[in-house]
Write a structure and sequence with these properties.
The complex is a heterodimer of chains A (274) and B (276). In chain A, 79% of the residues lie in helices and 0% in strands. By secondary structure, chain A is an all-alpha fold. Chain A is globular and about 70 Å long. The chains are: A mainly alpha (274), B mainly alpha (276).
């Protein structure tokens, strides 16, 4: 028995070393840089200086929130409809939903840009119709559309997963007991798929709030989101301390919102899973 | 109601696929514009393959993905073996939550945190850390690890533990038991972890963006550079090729996998990430 526990411990060693060196240490460096100036002495000025970036934080949260809500509004009915199909049809549509997830985000965003850009397909068509080019790229709508387009499958899949586990009898019972369509949706389906909704919201909100490629491409460089700001501070401005401070605050914001959401989902979600 | 829901599905999937389909169609357009479709040709594909930088980037991507997924699978499988046997619940929770950090954190934070680590390490004279293949490899192994552990750990849990006990009672050493009894039954998890790591590594742009240098570019980094300023139709050709490759891969995996289980791994990973 003793020998065995030696192997057990040895098996974990490479992973523990890797974890400490490349997961824990980098995060400690983020904290260290966030609280020091470029000379390396302790300061709060990076954190207090973040008030200059308040509007960037605000607009990023706003864009990400709108994108998340739109994804939920489009995605929930889709997940619901999918979960009520024949099993064979369900498999096909799940695959169709996953295919875009496997295609690089750069490519999907770029293909959307090809549609919406000034020389893009949509404007080429509009010009032929005599409607002239319409400026789409560079508007807030284009950035939000990009987020919705890129992250919609991440909303649909977890909701679909939790809905597809539900027995059809729930809905039959609700109808037998006099629920109409919308009432079945709000009183039966929605509460029973809460865990899926929460996963979906997290999976859309987190990449939306931290993106920089989408805003660079579809925002035409006119929108600075948190991701753009972090990228610029690290790669072009050589302002690592400020960049680290922004990253730290964003990370904490996300951790808090995920924790709150999970708590919110836990209060009566526990027994439903069984 | 049924008709309405069909229309709705058709609409959403149509919008989801329209840009990709358009991009693939126009990658064959010799005119290189959206205004006219001059003739169907492979002109832009030929253009792409004349670009030696693109070919190098593809090679780099494949090497990096293969190496990082193999290393992550080795470390991760051993780690899952160890984690499965930890008796203390607190220790287990701590290790699991730290392991999952790269999966939970936005990619950009993982990217900049590693960049800071490497920048700090480069200050140590005898280490000679430079951004490039080495730093990319470390970063890719790091973000692959949680996904490998996530696919292997459930297999350990599902395993009949009496088998292990029987092997030990019959005189196998723990190492031999692992190789002869446990490894075969966790193999599906190991393979899906490996495949998942390979695709994630191939796909990664954000983290690589922060830990790369100009002399080691992967395909996503190349695409990023090429799309920075102007629209190039050879990029559409490249994108179309990638879409074809993924389509082929998915079809293969679906025919090979008994019930599409492997294709579900990505979904599994994403939901698991959010549920943790």
């Amino acid at each position: 028995m003793k020998k065995r526990s030696f192997l057990e411990r040895a098996a974990l060693v490479p992973h523990l070393v890797w974890m400490i060196l490349f997961i824990v240490a980098p995060l400690l460096f983020v904290i260290y840089f966030a609280f020091t100036d470029s000379g390396g002495s302790f300061t709060f000025s990076n954190i207090t200086g973040l008030s200059n970036y308040a509007d960037i934080f605000l607009i990023s949260v706003l864009f990400a929130l709108i994108a998340t809500v739109v994804c939920l509004l489009i995605g929930y009915p889709l997940a619901f409809v999918m979960s009520r199909l024949k099993p064979s049809a369900q498999r096909v549509f799940v695959l169709l939903l996953m295919l875009p997830m496997w295609i690089s985000l750069l490519i999907r965003t770029y293909s959307l840009l090809a549609m919406l850009d000034n020389g893009g397909l949509l404007n080429a068509l509009l010009e032929k119709l005599g409607a002239g080019p319409v400026k789409i790229v560079g508007t807030p709508g284009a950035v939000i559309l990009g987020m919705v387009y890129d992250f919609l499958p991440y909303m649909v899949l977890p909701i679909y997963t939790s809905l597809s586990k539900l027995d059809n009898k729930y809905f039959e019972a609700a109808e037998d007991l006099g629920c109409n369509g919308p009432k079945t949706l709000f009183k039966v389906a929605l509460p029973l798929s809460k865990s899926g909704i929460i996963s979906g919201i997290t999976m859309v909100f987190v990449p939306s709030i931290s993106t920089f490629y989408i805003s660079q491409k579809l925002g035409g460089g006119r929108f600075d989101l948190i991701g753009d700001t972090i990228e610029r501070q690290f790669l072009y401005n050589n302002a690592r301390n400020i960049g680290a401070a922004i990253s730290l605050v964003m990370m904490i914001l996300i951790l808090i919102s995920v924790a709150v959401m999970n708590r919110f989902g836990d209060d009566d979600g526990g027994e439903l899973i069984v | 109601m049924k008709v309405l829901s069909r229309i709705y599905m058709f609409l959403v999937f149509g919008l989801l696929y329209a840009p990709i389909i358009v991009l693939v169609l126009y990658s064959f357009n010799k005119a290189g514009t959206f205004n006219t479709y001059s003739e169907f040709s492979l002109y832009w594909y030929a253009e792409l393959f004349r670009d030696s930088v693109a070919i190098d980037a593809l090679k780099n991507s494949l090497i990096l993905a293969a190496l990082s997924s193999v290393i992550a699978t080795l470390i991760g499988t051993l780690a899952a073996y160890g984690i499965h046997r930890i008796r203390s619940k607190t220790v287990k929770t701590v290790i699991n939550s730290v392991t999952n950090i790269p999966m939970m954190n936005p990619d950009i934070v993982t990217g900049v945190s590693m960049m800071l680590l490497f920048a700090a390490a480069s200050a140590i004279p005898f280490l000679k850390v430079e951004m490039g293949f080495g730093t990319m490899l470390i970063a890719h192994v790091t973000f692959n690890l949680p996904y490998v552990i996530l696919s292997v750990l459930p297999k350990f849990k599902q395993m009949d533990k009496h088998l292990t006990e029987a092997a030990l009672d019959l005189g196998c050493t723990p190492a031999r038991t692992f190789l002869k009894v446990e490894l075969p039954s966790i193999m599906p998890g190991v393979i899906s972890g490996l495949m998942l790591g390979f695709t994630l590594s191939l796909d990664d742009f954000v983290i690589s963006h922060f830990v790369s240098s100009s002399d080691f570019k992967t395909l996503p980094l190349y695409v990023y550079n090429q799309t920075a300023h102007e629209v190039k139709f050879s990029m559409y050709a490249l994108c179309a090729l990638m879409v074809f490759a993924i389509l082929l891969l998915m079809i293969l995996v679906n025919f090979a996998g008994s019930d599409g289980k492997k294709a579900n791994v990505k979904k599994h990973k994403k939901t698991a990430a959010a549920e943790k």
